[in-house]
């Protein structure tokens, strides 16, 4: 009987203990699941709200849930208010829909058939499946204003609940640990069993209750946001494997969280650091997020409309690239202008890009604006500069041509061209520049390309009227093209005036040389008169001249007539207007011809010409008549300088010498006229080539001689310089480029 009562008491103890343990196991499982659900909700909120504008937040949460589900051996379902499973672990459960008043609805409704009453709803609900022995904890997910996308929930305006999160897990039998003691035998005495029960209770407290409390504390701390600390497996007792499992889950979560934090930090740095304005906008064109640069320039606030912030408008722009991207899902680029918050105008290049969720739906659009205000200002300055230079180009008082350096085709020209030639721009552009030269003028393109200046050329206008021009050439690159800028100056009036001055100077020179020329002609006339007298005497005597005398006398007649003819022809040629076309001439010959005029005058004044000529002299390009005028003027000045010196003091033969010297190199011919006069004062040397400047007495000179020499020499691209030491005479040096260097443009 006692044994029966003991066994009955022991059986009742086991039954009661089993029920109590089951209830305790259920409570522990519910608390653990509740903390896990809170932890999951907070983790998902952080990943969803902090992932705006970067990787798809839904994918990040999905990866997190998969890791948690695999390591914790449970099923996680996230449903929106429409009952759609938007996120699930395992992922194959996504897309399932609970219809009608499902059992999950009790998380937000006391009665599934009643409207939602969030204020009265419980924090969570627990459902048990008797068929599988599993438990499902369902928790309501509260709504937040900064929820970024609808990847997880279908949010309604003003809703306080977004949806639910449910965790389904298996609950082990609560009596599993009580079966082992029964194997010791039910026939032992009750005291021994009680001792065993007491020992088991102590063992249970040591091996199960304390480790369970340690894990509960760790989960509770983690659910409040505290960092996870690994549990000590040595203190876990029977839960050692479970603790190590929890630690591995925590390590995986920490690793993933660390990677997410690094990516988040990198994307945040990129988002804030790019040198352009970035915004993220919803379908209503409201600002969901923007970088610091945008905030500094506009002082914007979240949820403001972009058109209000950018342009101060009350309605959207007509050609909105963000709206287009929402419509077709493509990037669009436009150029916009607006105003910064300080009132300064701005211009931007705007480009949009869609932001998609895991299902490929466009949830937002990112808009990037690159400030091009400075470029716009430069473009406006460039346009003003182009207009300025175009105005200058068209109003330059000389004709300017832009030529193709390859074929000399006219690409552009200014208005002065029309005034000078009588052509319209359309009649000249596209034609060869050679068409403007007078007929018979040879223009060699190769020579023209390498020249920098053509001092004198003959052009024709639209009516075939000839006129004289000087041409300055500059070769350069314009927009990658090899071009020539040609400036054409009408020098017709100057050439004619110069010819008149030169002609007057020649006439004056001829008048001044009249005495010398008369003396030159007297000699052949005297010889002719002597021969004539000889024949008269023979005729009066009735005698015929001897054949030898007749031959000698006729030779004298012919020789002196030729001499007189040569003198007269030289004077006529010198007095004739010069030919403006250049030919190859030798400077030595020009200098000798110039001295022929003065041979008698110099003899009368006892002035001797000292010749130092370069026998291997190359030719130069010039008009011999004009070049002769240069050396005649220099000889006249040298003669007058010696006369002035000798009129003041006694002179020796060494004081009456004019040296005519030439030399040459590979590029130039140099001619010098050196006198033994009193020299040129230092304050006069720099001015002697100025027009109408003269150091001679009034009536002895016009002041144009050296000025004419300067103009003639520079027309042939040469130079003329004066050197002098007071009391030691003067030296005039004329330098002319040789003909070959002029043709090749190497001078």
Outline the structure in words.
The protein is α+β, with helices and mostly antiparallel strands. 46% of the residues lie in helices and 21% in strands. The protein has a five-stranded antiparallel sheet, with helices on one face. A five-stranded antiparallel sheet has the order 7-6-10-9-8, with helices on both faces. It has a five-stranded antiparallel sheet with strand order 12-11-15-14-13. A hairpin with a 5-residue loop joins strand 13 and strand 14 (466-478). The chain is rod-shaped and about 205 Å long. The N and C termini lie far apart (145 Å).
Percent of residues in helices: 40-55%
The total strand number stands at 22
Terminal CA distance reads 145 Å
> Biggest sheet, strands in spatial order?
2-1-5-4-3
Describe the main β-sheet briefly.
Answer: 5 strands, antiparallel
- Judged by helices, strands and strand pairing, the structural class is alpha+beta
Average of pLDDT: 75
Radius of gyration: 59 Å
- Beta fraction of the residues? 15-25%
């Amino acid at each position: 009987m006692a044994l029966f009562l003991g066994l009955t008491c022991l059986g009742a103890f086991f039954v009661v203990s089993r029920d109590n343990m089951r209830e305790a196991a259920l409570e522990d499982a519910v608390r653990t699941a509740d903390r896990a659900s809170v932890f999951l909700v907070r983790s998902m909120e952080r990943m969803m709200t902090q992932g705006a504008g970067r990787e798809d937040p839904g994918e990040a949460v999905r990866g997190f849930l998969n890791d948690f589900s695999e390591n914790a051996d449970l099923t996680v379902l996230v449903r929106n208010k429409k009952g759609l499973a938007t996120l699930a672990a395992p992922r194959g459960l996504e897309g399932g829909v609970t219809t009608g008043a499902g059992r999950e609805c009790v998380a937000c409704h006391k009665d599934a058939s009643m409207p939602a009453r969030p204020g009265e709803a419980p924090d969570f609900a627990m459902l048990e499946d008797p068929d599988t022995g599993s438990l499902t904890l369902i928790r309501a997910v509260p709504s937040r204003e900064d929820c970024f996308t609808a990847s997880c929930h279908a949010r309604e305006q003003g809703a306080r609940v977004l949806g639910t999160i449910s965790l389904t897990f298996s609950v082990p039998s609560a009596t599993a640990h009580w079966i082992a003691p029964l194997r010791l035998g039910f026939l032992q005495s009750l005291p021994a069993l009680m001792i065993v029960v007491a020992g088991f209770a102590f063992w249970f407290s040591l091996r199960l209750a304390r480790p369970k409390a340690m894990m509960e504390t760790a989960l509770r701390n983690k659910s409040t946001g505290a960092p996870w600390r690994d549990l000590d497996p040595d203190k876990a007792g029977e839960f050692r494997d479970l603790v190590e499992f929890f630690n591995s889950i925590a390590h995986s979560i920490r690793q993933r969280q660390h990677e997410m934090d690094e990516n988040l930090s990198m994307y945040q740095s990129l988002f804030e650091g790019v040198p352009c304005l970035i915004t993220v906008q919803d379908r209503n064109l409201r600002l969901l997020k923007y970088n610091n640069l945008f905030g500094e320039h506009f002082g914007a606030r979240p949820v403001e409309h972009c058109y209000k912030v950018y342009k101060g408008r009350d309605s959207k722009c007509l050609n909105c690239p963000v709206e287009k991207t929402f419509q077709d899902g493509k990037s669009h680029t436009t150029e916009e202008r607006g105003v910064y918050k300080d009132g300064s105008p701005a211009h931007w290049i705007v480009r949009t890009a869609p932001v998609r969720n895991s299902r490929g739906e466009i949830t937002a659009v990112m808009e990037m604006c690159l400030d091009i205000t400075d470029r716009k200002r430069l473009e406006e300055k460039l346009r003003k500069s182009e207009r300025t230079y175009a105005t200058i180009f068209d109003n330059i008082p000389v004709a300017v041509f832009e030529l193709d350096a390859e074929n000399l085709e006219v690409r552009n020209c200014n208005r002065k061209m029309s005034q000078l030639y009588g052509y319209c721009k359309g009649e000249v552009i596209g034609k060869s520049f050679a068409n403007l030269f007078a007929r018979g003028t040879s223009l060699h393109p190769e020579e023209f390309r390498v020249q920098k200046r053509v001092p004198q050329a003959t052009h024709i206008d639209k009516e075939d009227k000839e006129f004289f021009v000087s041409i300055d050439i500059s070769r350069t690159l314009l927009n990658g093209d090899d071009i020539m800028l040609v400036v054409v100056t009408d020098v017709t009036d100057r050439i004619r005036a110069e010819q008149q001055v030169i002609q007057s100077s020649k006439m004056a020179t001829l008048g001044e040389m009249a005495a010398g020329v008369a003396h030159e002609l007297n000699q052949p006339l005297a010889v002719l008169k002597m021969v004539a007298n000889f024949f008269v005497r023979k005729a009066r005597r009735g005698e015929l001249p001897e054949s030898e005398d007749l031959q000698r006398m006729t030779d004298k007649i012919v020789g002196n007539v030729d001499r007189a003819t040569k003198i007269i022809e030289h004077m006529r040629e010198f007095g004739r207007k010069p030919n403006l076309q250049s030919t190859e001439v030798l400077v030595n010959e020009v200098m000798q011809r110039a001295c022929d005029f003065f041979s008698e005058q110099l003899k009368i004044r006892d002035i001797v010409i000292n010749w130092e000529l370069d026998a291997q002299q190359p030719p130069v390009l010039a008009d011999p008549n004009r070049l002769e005028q240069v050396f005649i003027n220099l000889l006249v000045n040298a003669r007058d300088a010696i006369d002035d010196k000798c009129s003041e003091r006694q002179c020796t033969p060494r004081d009456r010498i004019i040296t005519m010297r030439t030399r040459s190199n590979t590029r130039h011919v140099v001619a010098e006229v050196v006198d033994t006069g009193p020299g040129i004062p230092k304050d006069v040397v720099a001015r002697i080539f100025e027009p109408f400047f003269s150091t001679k007495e009034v009536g002895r000179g016009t002041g144009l001689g050296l000025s004419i020499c300067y103009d003639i020499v520079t027309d042939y691209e040469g130079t003329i310089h004066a050197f002098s030491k007071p009391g030691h005479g003067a030296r005039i040096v004329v330098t002319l480029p040789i003909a070959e260097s002029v043709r090749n443009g190497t001078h």
